[in-house]
Design brief:
The complex is a heterodimer of chains A (272) and B (269). Chain A has two domains: 1-80 and 168-267, P-loop containing nucleotide triphosphate hydrolases (Rossmann fold), CATH 3.40.50; 89-163, no CATH class. Chain A has eleven helices and ten strands. Chain A has helices spanning 41-48, 71-79, 96-101, 110-118, 123-132, 148-162, 178-194, 206-212, 235-242, 248-258, 262-266, and strands at 2-11, 15-25, 30-34, 56-61, 64-65, 81-84, 166-170, 198-202, 215-220, 223-229. In chain A, 45% of the residues are buried. The model of chain A is unreliable at 255-272 (pLDDT under 50). Chain B has 269 residues and is an all-alpha fold. Chain B has one domain (49-268): MetI-like fold (Orthogonal Bundle), CATH 1.10.3720. Chain B is built from twelve helices and no strands. In chain B, helix 4 (51-83) crosses helix 12, helix 8 packs antiparallel against helix 10 and helix 10 (185-220) packs parallel to helix 11. The longest helix of chain B is centred in the last third of the chain and has 36 residues, at 185-220. The radius of gyration of chain B is 24 Å and the shape is globular. Classes of the chains: A alpha/beta (272), B mainly alpha (269).
Chain lengths: 272, 269
């Protein structure tokens, strides 16, 4: 699905966010990205969903080179990639139904889009998606009145309506309470499993990554620290990944991994 | 230390302006002028409340009101037709254009269009409405029509700038998310930008309407109809009783519009 070759992203001409990154993601694969904050995970995702162009290197999406995308073709490719962000990815003043249906904008004409703001088009689709995430009763509410967890589910409903081939989830649960977090991750996993969608997820929680993903990529200072099947990732790998990052969250992760943990023994996909 | 310097600067400016404007409390309150002022105020009373004049005043007040109202609507039309062209983030810069590999001349053209729209708005805004009114009175003749045009043109420039600032400062994260779903720029305008900016733009418009009702009075002075023109006539013909009636009418109509606009704005928030 994705082939990245020597991808660099430099901000303001000096700050390297991503440095010389090589990566291959196959269709239908489920990959978790972990690493300390500031490692370049979000930048990498913004490159992968074609929001920002890499400074150098080549990005192939489904065999097509990203630098050739423009205008209509760029929109067509973006439509095939769905993104869930950490937060603030909905339009607060719009009703939930319009935020959900905005997943259709890639295939609607401008006129259809404007008409739908007046009288929602494809209402069944929106309702079905909201049912799937369990908040069908919120259809006509103003999005800003919803809680963080509900908003994240609206974002997933939009993803369902968009029905992309690739799902990029950039720390989808870090602003959601822990009990809900597992549910949201589970929902995205199910989605990728049942419909064979490629799933890439940035995760703050190493445990969630081990529990649900067959392949883990550790990202540090904009480069890949390791790229291994979950079973092959050791505590040394994690220690090296979070060493020197100094953030509390990172230290917590190391401590929790150092203890005998369930995460790995429980994880169901022990692909070699 | 810096605060001291700022304070000193403000003090110096005050002294300089005091001297510059020949401000004098003694001249304002003392002796001759105070007596004159009192005499003039006494002459204003009682206001002319004859039915005939009240009816006329009502008509002029309506004229002033209509001038401010239509002027504001014209301003909205002018502002809306230029503001999208004058917004950098919609025309050539930032998130919506990061991935576009359009030919250089397209980009140059878009940039030029944006800056010319900005320049036009600036021109409309920087020329005071009074000057616009003078020009337009010469062009289309006396009456409320040139007044309405002058208000609309000047306020169009003001609103264009205010709307533009709101549009250039929208929350970018929802827009990034919309773009990532494959939405086009016009769709992003309708789904991501307008819902964010509309309440603020309406509030600004209502506020400018309040300003315009006062400006409409002033415009009467250069022949643009309404209460202002009658005030000018009343002053120059020494019709003091009528002057007071007209002033009361202004007070009423401005207060009414202020209250209405404040009510509408509070309803929106």
């Amino acid at each position: 699905m994705y082939v990245l070759d020597g991808i660099c992203k430099v901000f303001d001409g000096r700050t390297f966010a991503v440095r010389d990154l090589d990566l291959k993601i196959r269709r239908g694969e489920r990959v978790a990205l972990i690493g300390p904050s500031g490692a370049g995970k979000t930048t990498l995702f913004r490159i992968l969903n074609l929001t920002i162009p890499p400074t150098s290197g080549t990005l192939l999406f489904d065999g097509l080179e990203s630098r050739h995308f423009s205008g209509r073709r760029l929109r067509d490719v973006r439509r095939r990639i769905g993104t869930i962000y950490q937060q603030h990815n909905l339009v607060p003043r719009l009703q939930v139904v319009h935020n959900v249906l905005s997943g259709k904008l890639g295939s609607w004409s401008v006129w259809q889009a404007v008409q739908s703001l007046i009288r929602p088009a494809e209402l069944d689709l929106a309702l079905g998606a909201l049912k799937q995430v369990g908040i069908a009763n919120k259809l006509y509410e103003r999005t800003e009145t919803l809680s963080g967890g509900q908003q994240q589910r609206v974002a997933i409903a939009r993803l369902l309506v968009q029905n992309p081939e690739v799902i990029l989830a950039d720390e989808p649960v870090s602003s959601v309470d822990p009990t809900l977090a597992a549910g949201i991750v589970r929902l995205l996993i199910d989605l990728s499993e049942t419909h064979c969608k490629t799933l890439l997820m940035n995760l703050h929680s190493v445990d969630l990554a081990f529990a649900h993903f067959p392949r883990l990529i550790g990202l540090k200072n904009g480069t890949i620290s390791f790229d291994l099947p979950a079973a092959a990732v050791t505590d040394e790998h994690l220690a090296a990944l979070y060493a020197g990052s100094g953030t509390e969250a990172a230290e917590e992760e190391i401590v929790s991994r150092a203890e005998p943990s369930f995460g790995r023994s429980c994880q169901p996909h022990l692909t070699g | 230390m810096r605060n001291l310097m700022v304070a000193g600067g403000i003090l110096a400016l005050m002294v300089w302006s005091y001297v510059g404007t020949e401000f004098s409390l003694r001249e304002l309150l003392g002796g001759e002028s105070a007596i004159q002022m009192l005499a003039y105020v006494r002459k204003l009373f009682p206001p002319d409340l004859s039915t005939q004049f009240l009816l006329k005043t009502g008509y002029w007040a309506l004229e002033t009101f209509a001038m401010s109202f239509l002027g504001t609507i014209l301003a909205i039309l002018i502002a809306c037709s230029l503001v999208f062209l004058s917004s950098r983030n919609l025309m050539f810069a930032g998130l919506l254009f990061d991935m576009e590999r359009s030919r250089p001349w397209v980009r140059v053209l878009r940039t030029l269009l944006c800056f010319s729209a900005k320049a036009v708005l600036n021109l409309l805004r920087t020329i005071p409405h009074l000057v616009w009114a003078l020009i337009l009175v010469f062009a289309v003749g006396l009456g409320p029509f040139p007044g309405m045009l002058a208000l609309g043109i000047h306020t169009g420039g003001v609103l264009g700038r205010l709307f533009g600032e709101v549009i250039e400062n929208v929350e970018v994260q929802p827009i990034e998310a919309l773009q990532a779903t494959g939405a086009g720029r016009l769709q992003i305008l309708f789904y991501g930008i307008l819902p964010q900016v509309l309440p603020e733009c309406v509030a600004y418009t209502l506020y400018r309407w309040e300003v315009n009702i006062r400006e409409a009075v002033i415009l009467g002075y250069v022949g643009a109809g309404g209460l202002g023109q009658q005030i000018q006539i009343a002053i120059s013909l020494f019709l003091e009783h009528r002057l007071l009636t007209l002033i009361l009418a202004i007070y009423l109509i401005v207060t009414a519009v202020d209250a209405l606009s404040a009510y509408l704005r509070s309803r929106m928030a």
